[in-house]
Amino acid sequence: MRKKAYRPDVDVPEWKGRYVPYDIIKEGTIALVVVAILTVALAVVFSSPDEKAITIKTWSNADPIDFAKTAVSELDGTSGVAHYGAPYNHGGPAQGLGFLSPEKWVGVRIAINTATDFVLNPLEAQPTQPALHAALTQWASASSTTQSSWTSAYASADAKMTFTGDHVNVPTHAAGPVPVLINDLTMMARSGALDQALVTQNGFYTTNYTKPLLFLSDGTYLAGLANKQHLGGDQWGMMNETGSWPGQAWLWLYTFWYQVSPYNSSKSGDFMVFGTMMVLTALLVAVPFIPGLRSVPRRIKIYRLIWREHYRESED
Fold first, then answer.
1. Same domain for 155 and 88
2. Is residue 172 a part of any domain in this protein?
3. Is residue 242 part of a domain?
4. What pLDDT, in 10s, does the model give residues 128-168?
């Protein structure tokens, strides 16, 4: 019978040397202590700031002008979310590469109309207020052309917007009910009621923060805070914490790709990064099955450094 050839990257030769006792408890304790000391020391030196969660209430109180301007863009459908596309709406092209476009295949799964979901529905849920009720009625009874003319007039004057006496003031008389809607939404946001209204639109359980997060993303306040902490997409920053829990260190590999071409300039950058990470993950899973690649650890012989005492004794 023909003897089967020895495969160095798969087969393990039978050990014929001597055996020595090994204190795994001692080694484990030493490793635990060393790792604990390093963790504490590195956390003190390199830890990210434990910032409080940013809410719409936080935003509207810190920068009511930015909030009001963003609210107008949500109402007239010119915001980033309104033009994002799938899975939120049909406002923009889906990301993809050639014929590959999973975003388009899946379609709109989390339907969001920024005017209705971010502005009108929350205001309609407010306790009855004569001025607000009249403004909502006037808006609902107007044609889309009239509504557009109102928001355009308001947006044209928002460069002169001021916030005094807890009111948003815009010098225009051609905006119809828009000033009342935006002012009341701002007051609602500053009280914290808008945060709750946005998460309760999806049902009883208030655990879906998609809408408040998307609203926040359209303003400049959150991006400004990120840039101050060097967390912008072009700053290689990363912080993803909940309370005092540490962030995910592995996210650096995702943020890395956004810094290099063509990922940093493509409109389908998110899809390209996702695809790249999936390919790399598949290669990592397939390492034990790829001839040559699976032999790298055995050929570079790092294991001999780790078990140097064992090999030193066996060679004597």
1. yes
2. yes
3. no
4. 889 999 999 999 999 999 999 999 999 999 889 999 888 99
Cα(180)–Cα(182) distance, rounded to whole angstroms? Answer: 6
User: Of the segments 48-52, 112-116, 123-127, 156-160, which one has the largest average pLDDT value?
Assistant: 112-116
pLDDT the model gives residue 246? 55
How many CB atoms are located within 10 Å of the residue 226 CB?
16
Question: Under DSSP, is residue 162 helix (H, G, I), strand (E, B) or coil?
Answer: strand
> Would you say residue 235 has pLDDT above 80?
no
- 135 close to 88: Cβ distance less than 8 angstroms: no
Residue 186, Cβ neighbours under 10 Å: how many?
Answer: 22
Type of residue at 189: A
Q: Say if residue 172 is in the same domain as residue 127.
A: yes
Q: Is 281 exposed, middle or buried (0-12, 13-18, 19+ CB in 10 A)?
A: exposed
Task: Report whether pLDDT(247) > 70.
Answer: no
For residues 255-281, average pLDDT: 89
pLDDT of residue 260: 87
Domain annotation covers residue 13:
yes
What are the residue ranges of helices labelled H in 47-143? 56-62, 64-75, 102-106, 114, 121-124, 130-141
DSSP labels, 168-194: EE---SSSTTHHHHHHHHHHHHHHTHH
Enumerate the β-bridge partners of residue 167. Answer: 164
Whether residue 66 is found in the same domain as residue 131: yes
Helix (H), strand (E) at residue 42? helix 24-46
Q: Cα torsion for 263, 265, 271, 274, to the nearest 10°?
A: 20
Higher local confidence (pLDDT), 280 or 204: 280
Q: Are 94 and 236 in contact (CB under 8 A)?
A: no
Domain that holds residue 3: 1-47+248-316
Predicted pLDDT of residue 254: 82
Query: How many domains, the chain?
Result: 2
